[in-house]
């Protein structure tokens, strides 16, 4: 029973699992779009008697490593949940720090992202971001917009319910103005009104830190995504964890309702 449970959760203790070789993994199918709920920064810090923001700082370094690895593996899009519409509820010092992180990340790594042909995107309600955060984000988007390598899509002040309601309102507006016919609305049209727009749905969703929930993340887009959960806290996530997740993905049977 314990083994079944562990398998389902992913691999909390990698030492008990088979080590995955990247070359071997590349012989199989690499997910086109990976989405990650990067969770557990606060608990990582708490375990070390550090302030929560130390966990966020450490987590940022992992973003860099995972981006590099995903790019090297040939993943086309990596969506990272960085800040939810509910995260404003946190203490002001923590929110202020989280809003400084995109600047810190992008100032330090933008040249590297450009060099690696990464295209930075941001989905979420950008209007509510502090001006300094918005500036850093817009600069990165602008300077990488012509890159055609990995799409690094940050979900920043993102909430899936808000996203869906905004899409509905936009569609209603289009219908009212006669630009769109009610009969034309289908799944494809609806998807184009979401913040992911033309990005394909994620093939693989990873959530760290042992929480088994979506926390308002990509509710529409994850309809047929494969889920992989691990107890590893985000600052401890490493290259081997990503390989484990993809390895598990490669052994799943995706049926999309068929046989
Ligand atoms: C994830 O780590 C980062 C954000 C949500 C911004 P948490 O800050 O949620 O860490 P825990 O869940 O409290 O450990
Ligand atoms: C989800 O994590 C949001 C991000 C990772 C940015 P939370 O830590 O905010 O989620 P809950 O509150 O545990 O559901
Ligand atoms: Mg959390």
TrEMBL record:
It comes from the Bacteria. Pfam families: Prenyltransf. The active site is at 39, 87 (proton acceptor). Keywords: Magnesium, Metal-binding, Transferase. Binds 2 magnesium ions per subunit. Mg(2+) binds at residues 39, 226. Substrate binds at residues 40-44, 52, 56, 84-86, 88, 90, 207, 213-215. Its EC number is 2.5.1.-. Catalyzes the condensation of isopentenyl diphosphate (IPP) with allylic pyrophosphates generating different type of terpenoids. Homodimer. This is Isoprenyl transferase. It comes from Metabacillus halosaccharovorans.
């Amino acid at each position: 029973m314990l083994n079944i449970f562990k398998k389902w959760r992913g691999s909390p203790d990698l030492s008990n699992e088979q080590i995955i070789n990247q070359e071997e993994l590349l012989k199989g199918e690499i997910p086109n779009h990976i989405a990650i709920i990067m969770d557990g920064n606060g608990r990582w810090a708490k375990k070390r008697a550090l302030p929560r923001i130390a966990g966020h700082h450490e987590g940022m370094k992992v973003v860099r490593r995972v981006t590099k690895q995903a790019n090297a593996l040939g993943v086309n899009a990596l969506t990272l949940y960085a800040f939810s519409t509910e995260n404003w509820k946190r203490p002001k010092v923590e929110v202020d720090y989280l809003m400084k992180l995109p600047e810190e990340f992008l100032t330090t790594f933008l040249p590297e992202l450009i060099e690696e042909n990464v295209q930075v995107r941001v989905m979420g309600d950008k209007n509510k971001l502090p001006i300094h955060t918005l500036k850093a984000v817009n600069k990165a988007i602008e300077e990488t917009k012509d890159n055609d390598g990995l799409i690094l899509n940050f979900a920043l002040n993102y909430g899936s319910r808000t996203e869906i309601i905004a899409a509905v309102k936009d569609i209603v507006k289009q219908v009212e103005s006669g630009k769109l016919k009610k009969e034309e609305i289908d799944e494809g049209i609806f998807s184009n009104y979401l913040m992911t727009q033309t990005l394909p749905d994620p093939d693989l969703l990873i959530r760290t830190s042992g929480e088994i929930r979506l926390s308002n993340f990509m509710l529409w887009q994850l309809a047929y995504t494969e889920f992989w959960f691990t107890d590893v806290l985000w600052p401890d996530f490493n290259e081997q964890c990503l390989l484990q997740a993809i390895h598990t993905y490669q052994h799943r049977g995706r049926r999309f309702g068929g046989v």
